[in-house]
TrEMBL record:
Bilayer-spanning residue ranges: none
A Gene Ontology molecular function term of the record: catalytic activity
Protein name, per record: Enoyl-CoA hydratase/isomerase family protein
Species annotation: Nocardioides bruguierae
Signal peptide: none
Stored InterPro entries: ClpP/crotonase-like_dom_sf, Enoyl-CoA_hydra/iso, Enoyl-CoA_Hydratase/Isomerase
Family: Belongs to the enoyl-CoA hydratase/isomerase family.
Length: 256
């Protein structure tokens, strides 16, 4: 499987690679659909481990705002994109496979909760984690509300409202990142973790993952549907349209 997402299955590990580095692996309808298809393929193939990684400087800079601006029905476009991304996050969190994400550079906007959907998050020292939706007049999306389980309410509010970013070290201290490694060691560290997981019991890992995630008592799909409704309403609002316009024009937004 090639295109905006590459798929490779070897020895029980499905490696999913975001492969649009010239766009910062930004998510549009095509790339989000390809990512969902790759996750579903991993399920059909019975993958024991899913490794989510990316080409280029950045893991994922979030939604492709140029695609938003170019849509004749921006509300419908964002609704469909959010639903596809949310289904992907749901599939990853509910998969019996252990999901590992390997993050370099920015995991921003929807790229942040996508990386955090993994069970084990690895980060290069260059990695940073941010939301930034407020800067373009939009509410959080992509499963961001699930971050409060790991980061806590007020840290997540700070990231969402002030536009702050977590460094790899800060994300490690917050419990999100399992290991921080030098940039040139990220691939090797990822393969080491994959090998360790594959050497263990698949049934024990799957049962443990299910018990710990279900023990939170949170229904992620319900939370993500609320995110979809909120961002769709805002992207059609004057502030949302101004935020996207200003971002693409590289100008400060003039919100009402």
């Amino acid at each position: 499987m090639s295109g905006p997402v590459e798929y490779d299955l070897q020895a029980g590990c499905a490696r999913l690679t975001l492969s649009a580095p010239d766009r910062g692996n930004a998510l549009d309808a095509a790339s989000a659909g390809a990512l969902l298809a790759a996750v579903q393929q991993a399920g059909r193939d019975g993958a024991r481990v899913i490794l989510l990684r990316a080409q280029g400087r950045f893991f994922c800079v979030g939604g492709d705002l140029a695609a938003f601006a170019g849509s004749d029905d921006v509300g419908g476009y964002v609704d469909d994109l959010a639903e596809t991304l949310h289904r992907t996050v749901s599939e990853l969190t509910r998969s019996p496979a252990v999901v590992v994400s390997a993050v370099q550079g920015a995991a921003a906007g929807a790229g942040f909760p996508l990386a955090a959907a993994a069970d084990v998050v690895l980060a290069a020292r260059s990695a940073s984690f941010g939301l930034g939706y407020g800067r373009v007049g939009l509410s959080v999306d992509g499963g961001t509300t699930l971050l409060t389980q790991t980061l806590g309410l007020h840290r997540t509010l700070r990231l969402a409202l002030l536009g702050d970013r977590l460094t790899a070290a800060e994300a490690h201290d917050a419990g999100l990142v399992a290991r921080v490694v030098e940039d040139d060691g990220l691939d090797a560290a990822s393969e080491e973790v994959v090998a360790s997981l594959l050497a263990g019991s698949a049934s024990a890992a799957a049962r443990t993952k299910a018990l710990l995630r279900e023990g939170l008592g949170v229904v992620p799909e319900a939370l993500m549907r609320e995110e979809t409704l909120a961002i769709r309403a805002l992207v059609e609002s004057p502030d949302g349209r101004e935020g996207v316009r200003a971002f693409l024009a590289k100008e400060p937004p003039a919100f009402g």
